[in-house]
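Sanity check

After download, print the first record. It should look like this:
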Amino acid sequence: MNKKTKEIILFVVGGIFLIILLQNTHVVTFHILFWNLSMSLIILQLLILFLGLSVGYFWGKCR
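Expected structure tokens:
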């Protein structure tokens, strides 16, 4: 795959993710062991995205 194709795919996936973020603005409560955390779904999705990207990056670096 050439560089231009990768950029187009990244742009489309980023756009879809942005649309999903903007549609999910309500506050959610989730439970982790003994804690109840309430936050906007946008923030939660961004945290999960960055956590996944970080794990994938470091996993790739270690291999």
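If your output differs, re-run the checksum step. Summary of this record's structure: The chain has a mean pLDDT of 88.
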